[in-house]
């Protein structure tokens, strides 16, 4: 029997067109998912594909409401016995945030594959059509089961847990440096070299989540001011993630800002502005803030929002950050 896939279109450059074929950056989301699929020769031969379009936007416009809606939609399709896998087209700008949210909330043996493009559909050498076909092939392949949420771009299959946009314009924006790469799609076939070690259930269930508490990320640097911390407290943030220096080192203003926030009941997490490496415990300067360990600032923010939404306290959040 042919694999049965649900293809969910959400927008992004993969669904965008510009005035002429050499324009790679000034574009608008114009294509619906059905039309996008119909324009790719042979795409419908990969599987039985049912399309859905909950929204069609540039991913900079996405927020909690849409991401929660998308996650619920994916979960519903994964539960259906007549669906083998789900593919989601998504803008690359905030793709890693949606991918990490799904990593924390959706767990199924069935494949979930996010895909985008760096060049609009109207461009010379547009990367979207092949990326989409590769994503469909990956989702349809039984070898993709039990590997968690995946991201496919530029022939690379990347774990959502480690997906991050590492170049602003190149087609190898995800995975080219090898980070989080589980395998590759070569000549129409997904070939894996890594199987992630994932628990059977996601750390957070979606049920009952209507919204998520506000958590801000504050970048730290030489001469950093303290007012962003005061402003976040004043605005009602429930937690702060500092994109700190090095191994979570805090400037004097960040130390004061975190101390003030913690006194007001916020949870503060020290992640790092450095792209690689962990943030370890450092009792000397933590001042009650928690280390993000293996999470980058955006991932720490998403984990902290989910933890606070579930009513987790400081000690439980500390344990969670060590595990993720
Ligand atoms: N601005 C686009 C988006 O995130 C970028 C892309 O998809 O590559 O929707």
Q: How would you concisely characterize the structure shown here?
A:
The chain has 324 residues and is an alpha/beta fold. 29% of the residues lie in helices and 19% in strands.
Distance between the termini: 37 Å
Number of domains: 2
Instruction: Choose one word for the global shape.
Output: globular
Question: Roughly what is the average pLDDT, rounded to an integer?
Answer: 96
What structural category do the secondary elements indicate? alpha/beta
What CATH architecture of the largest domain would you give?
3-Layer(aba) Sandwich
What is the CATH class name of the largest domain? Alpha Beta
In the CATH hierarchy, the third-tier topology of the largest domain is known as Rossmann fold
Q: What gyration radius follows from the Cα positions, in whole Å? A: 20 Å
The spatial strand order of the largest sheet comes to 4-1-5-6-7-8-9-10
Strand content bin = 15-25%
**Biggest β-sheet: count, sense, barrel?**
8 strands, mixed
Give the CATH H-level superfamily of the largest domain. L-asparaginase, N-terminal domain
The molecules bound to the chains, other than polymers, are: aspartic acid
Number of helices: 9
N-to-C series of helices and strands = EEEHEHEHEHEEEEEHEHEHEHH
**Secondary structure tally: strands:** 14
The portion of residues assigned to helices is: 25-40%
Weakly predicted, low-confidence segments? none
Give an overview of the whole structure.
The protein is built from nine helices and 14 strands. The protein is of the alpha/beta class and about 325 residues long. It has two domains: about 5-190, L-asparaginase, N-terminal domain (Rossmann fold, 3-Layer(aba) Sandwich), CATH 3.40.50.1170; about 215-324, Rossmann fold (3-Layer(aba) Sandwich). The strands form three sheets. It has an eight-stranded mixed sheet, with helices on both faces. Strands 11-12-13-14 form a four-stranded parallel sheet, with helices on both faces. The two termini are about 35 Å apart. The model has no long low-confidence stretch (mean pLDDT about 95). Aspartic acid binds near residues 11, 13 and 116.
């Amino acid at each position: 029997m042919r694999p049965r896939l649900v293809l969910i279109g959400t927008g992004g450059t993969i669904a965008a067109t510009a005035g002429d074929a050499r324009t790679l950056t000034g574009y608008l989301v114009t294509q619906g998912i059905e039309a996008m699929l119909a324009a790719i020769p042979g795409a419908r031969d990969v599987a039985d594909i049912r399309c859905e379009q909950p929204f069609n936007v540039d991913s900079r416009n996405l927020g909690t409401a849409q991401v929660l809606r998308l996650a619920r939609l994916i979960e519903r399709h994964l539960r259906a016995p007549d669906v083998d896998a789900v593919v989601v087209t998504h803008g690359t700008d905030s793709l890693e945030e949606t991918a990490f949210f799904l990593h924390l909330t959706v767990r199924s043996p069935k494949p979930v594959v996010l895909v985008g493009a760096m060049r609009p559909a109207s461009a010379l050498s547009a990367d979207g059509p092949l990326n989409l076909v590769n994503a469909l092939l990956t989702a349809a392949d039984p070898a993709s089961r039990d590997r968690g949420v995946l991201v496919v771009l530029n022939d690379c299959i990347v774990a959502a847990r480690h997906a991050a946009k590492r170049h602003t314009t190149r087609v190898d924006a995800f995975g080219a440096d090898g980070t989080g790469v589980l395998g590759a799609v070569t000549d129409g076939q997904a070939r894996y070299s890594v199987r992630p070690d994932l628990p059977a259930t996601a750390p957070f269930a979606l049920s009952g989540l209507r919204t998520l508490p506000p958590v801000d990320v504050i970048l730290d640097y030489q001469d950093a001011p303290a007012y962003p911390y005061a402003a976040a407290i004043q605005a009602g943030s429930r937690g702060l993630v500092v994109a700190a220096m090095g191994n979570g080192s805090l400037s004097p203003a960040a130390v004061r800002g975190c101390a003030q926030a913690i006194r007001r009941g916020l949870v503060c997490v020290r992640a790092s502005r450095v792209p690689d490496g962990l943030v370890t415990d450092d009792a000397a300067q933590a001042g009650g803030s928690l280390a993000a360990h293996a999470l980058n600032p955006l991932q720490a923010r998403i984990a902290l929002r989910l933890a606070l939404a579930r009513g987790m306290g400081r000690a439980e959040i500390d344990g969670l950050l060590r595990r993720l």
